[in-house]
Amino acid sequence: MNTPWILGLTGGIGSGKSAVAAHFSELGVHLVDADHAARWVVEPGRPALAKIAEHFGSGVLQADGQLDRAALRQRIFADAEERRWLESLLHPLIGQEISQYLARAESPYAILVSPLLIESGQYRMTQRVLLVDAPEAAQLQRTMQRDNVPEAQVQAILKVQASREERLKHADDVLLNDRDLHWLQSEVERLHNFYLTLRGGQP
């Protein structure tokens, strides 16, 4: 049995990468979501949460002992130093979680879905990168509608995420999501059939 090769799937906020990931999953591809891994590593009882509370104080915990993401986000968005501290704690742990979940894959290739695939260096765990790209105006529109947040907040998130140029540099395949869902799904199917022909992610 060949070990599955790993495809990294990324895209900016509101680019449609969740819709793309969902369709790959429907086609039977094993998916690991870095956002889920990031949530698992800070569950109560896990060492990372204790270290975060020790560093930032109990103000970043909710009454039930869960991480208060909004409070933590405010602390790190305002302070690049604190953000780096948090990233250096979490990235290796998230990497371990991801590796364990990818190792369970039984499909010919597996997908690591990560909005910060490039920024976090997680692309190094993959053999190929698929970028879901969308015009910035569409990203803003979709995110504001989906999360019901003001434009300024979306703009702030876009600034922290890697620039499109940076992502395009790392991408082996680019799926421009500027049409309807039906078209998007047919593109996913086309890519899936192509990926099934690859060994180790390379033609």
TrEMBL record:
This protein's UniProt keywords: ATP-binding, Coenzyme A biosynthesis, Cytoplasm, Kinase, Nucleotide-binding, Transferase
CDD domains per UniProt: DPCK
Chief site of localization: cytoplasm
Binding site for ATP: G14, S15, G16, K17, S18, A19
Gene Ontology CC, one term: cytoplasm
Reaction catalysed by this enzyme: 3'-dephospho-CoA + ATP = ADP + CoA + H(+)
Enzyme class: transferase
Pathway noted in the entry: Cofactor biosynthesis; coenzyme A biosynthesis; CoA from (R)-pantothenate: step 5/5
GO biological process terms, semicolon-separated: coenzyme A biosynthetic process
Family per record: Belongs to the CoaE family.
PANTHER family documented for this protein: BIFUNCTIONAL COENZYME A SYNTHASE-RELATED, DEPHOSPHO-COA KINASE-RELATED
Name of the protein described by the UniProt record: Dephospho-CoA kinase
Gene of this entry: coaE
